[in-house]
Structure formats: structure tokens, C-alpha cells
Design goal:
Layout lengths: L12 H6 L3 H11 L5 E3 L13 E2 L12 H6 L6 H16 L10 H13 L8 E3 L8 H9 L6
Parallel strand pairs: 1-3, 2-3
Length: 152
């Protein structure tokens, strides 16, 4: 059985967009625009920062305040890689809602506020840090936090 064809009036782009939920739009955007990546910053001759990437090492406002040496001083033991992973997790907690569990006080509040205030600047951008790409890095946390949630 054949169905009679009906003349359809084309939708305007605005009408099409109105039919797409926010969640569907986010999924579509993530498919088209991949999540930003982390690049290892190198100081070797000829290395160039990828265009549009942002350096987020400790010399910048986005640097991780948790260091391997500070962790060792407070009694943490293990390899440098294990303690570096602990520093990254401490950074993640510190930026989250339970931040006072890791470091509190005026210095902590000021440093945390600076990072969170400027976090939207990192949205959609690749980040560069000297950490090896096969190990945890606070830049991964910054990418996650800066690119989660609704667009500003």
C-alpha cells in the first residue's frame, strides 16, 4: 500500500534547533568538536606549543599547588609517580565542593578562587603541561572541569 505524499514545508534552522534538547545538543557537539587534549610541554629545541593551546604549568595561574615535595614533607611515601598521582587527586578534590578537606585558609581560598574564576578561559582549549602523557596530570582535571556543564 502506498501512502500519498504530502507537501512538507521545510523547517527553518531556528525551528529545527528548538526541537533539539540541551542534552542532545551537547552529545552532538561532543561528536563534532572533540574534547580538548593535553599536550606535554617540552623545552627541547624546535618544540612548539600547538596553536590555541594554553600552558597550565606551575608558572601560570592554573598550576597545581600540590607538589611531590610538600606531600613527602607531610608524610606521604611512595614513588614519585604515586605521589604525583596523589597530587592530581588532591587538586581535583580541592577544586570540587569538598575542597577544605585538602587545604584551607586564606591562601588556599585565594588560589582556588583565582583558578575557578579563570576556568572558563580554558573551555574548548588544548592544555600544555610538562607531565608525561602516560601519567595523571592536573591539566586533565582542568580540561574536565572547564568543559563540563552548560556553556557560559
Amino acid at each position: 500500500m502506498t501512502h500519498p505524499t504530502r507537501a512538507k514545508t521545510p523547517m527553518t534552522p531556528a525551528e529545527a534547533m528548538a526541537r533539539i534538547s540541551d542534552a542532545e545538543m551537547t552529545r552532538m557537539c561532543l561528536c563534532v568538536n572533540q574534547m580538548p587534549e593535553r599536550h606535554q610541554r617540552r623545552r627541547t629545541k624546535g618544540w612548539r606549543k600547538p596553536e590555541g593551546a594554553v600552558i597550565v604549568d606551575r608558572t601560570t595561574k592554573w598550576g597545581n599547588p600540590f607538589t611531590i615535595s610538600d606531600c613527602r614533607e607531610t608524610g606521604y611515601t611512595g614513588t614519585d609517580a604515586q605521589i604525583a598521582a596523589r597530587c592530581v587527586e588532591a587538586f581535583r578534590v580541592w577544586l570540587g565542593p569538598h575542597w577544605r578537606n585538602n587545604w584551607s585558609g586564606q591562601e588556599s581560598e585565594a588560589a582556588r578562587a583565582l583558578i575557578l574564576t579563570h576556568l572558563p578561559e580554558l573551555r574548548g582549549k588544548d592544555l600544555c603541561c610538562p607531565c608525561p602523557l602516560d601519567q595523571p596530570c592536573h591539566a586533565d582535571v582542568l580540561i574536565e572541569f572547564a568543559n563540563s556543564g552548560p556553556d557560559p
